[in-house]
Amino acid sequence: MSGSVLLRNILAVDGLSNSRPSLEGRKPTGWMGMLCTLLIAMTLAWQTPAKALDSDTETTQHRSLVDASKYPWSAVGRVNIAGVRARSHCTGALVGFRVVITAAHCLYRADLKKWATPGVVHFVAGYQRGEYEAHSTASELIISPGFDPLKWAHPDNYPNDWAVIILKQPIGLKVGYLGVLAMTPQQLKTFKSQDRRFALTGYPRDRAHAISVDVDCTLDEFFTDAHLVSHHCKIVNGDSGAPISLLFSGGLAVVAVNSASGIDTSRGKTNTAVPIAAFADRVINAIRKTEQAPSFGKGPVRAGRLPGSREN
């Protein structure tokens, strides 16, 4: 399905109605499988969460647990940083066979005071309670040049808190990938007038080994420069980089990446997310670099793909 058709479906509410095929990928077996499992287990244990901007008492018990092995949830995963001194995790989403989007601050090694290298960045798709659908390390990290990790909780950083991860392996072939929509301020007003629903999907600190969804997400408005969105999804540590998506029949269309919480504004405290529109060119370039003749609709917009599909 083309991106333009997806956009029409989103606006018309009808959405996609594809069913998941029965094709299932397999995890590595033998000694390679044992090694892979060990490396992933190391990144999932003894974790040091990134610094929180909100209260440590926040929880996500109101959120719904979903089956991480089923699409579209299988295309969401944990971004794990495996270090010697410290380990951390955030959330990321596949938007291509090898392309993951997340928050920039997730890739900063506070223990070493430098950016992570691709080899220590693991993306574990469809992770749930020790099981996972697919795994790959990164081959390239594309981090917002405007993000300064030394002054993280600073207004200048919020619109630049985005990153694109290119994986070594095309695991999106197995688990699928989500659609993306570079939503405009006018489209957000239209969606709100239609009572369209948004959802945040992530691995929060209080339930770090289970994927959960907030389907009562509220996207309020774009900030003046349109490079930042105000939202009131309930978030805690671990939800950094989580996709905020427009819900429609058959899947999700990611419209923003969760960034920070408890930000003071003239209208009170709010949470912030970086809209896809702010770094759509980097996402498109990464997809074009890793796929043959991918298609995009005007906006830009791109349809998601079910597991097992090789179509672009």
Structural write-up:
The chain has a single domain, classed as Thrombin, subunit H, CATH 2.40.10. Strands 1, 10, 11, 12, 13, 14, 15, 16, 17 and 18 form a ten-stranded mixed sheet that branches. Strands 2-3-4-9-8-7 form a six-stranded antiparallel β-barrel. The protein has a two-stranded antiparallel sheet with strand order 5-6. A hairpin with a 4-residue loop joins strand 5 and strand 6. The chain is globular, with a radius of gyration of 18 Å. The protein has five helices and 18 strands. Helices cover 16% and strands 31% of the residues.
Features:
single chain; 312 residues; alpha+beta; Thrombin, subunit H; ten-stranded mixed sheet; six-stranded antiparallel beta barrel; 16% helix
Task: Map the helices and strands.
Blueprint: H1 3-12, H2 30-44, E1 64-65, E2 76-82, E3 87-94, E4 99-102, E5 108-109, E6 114-115, E7 121-125, E8 134-143, E9 163-167, H3 172-175, E10 179-181, H4 185-193, E11 198-202, E12 212-217, E13 219-222, E14 229-231, E15 243-248, E16 251-265, E17 268-275, H5 280-290, E18 301-302
C-alpha geometry: globular
Beta-strand percent range: 25-35%
Distance linking N and C termini: 9 Å
The Cα radius of gyration reads 18 Å
Q: Helical content, roughly?
A: 10-25%
Biggest sheet layout: 10 strands, mixed
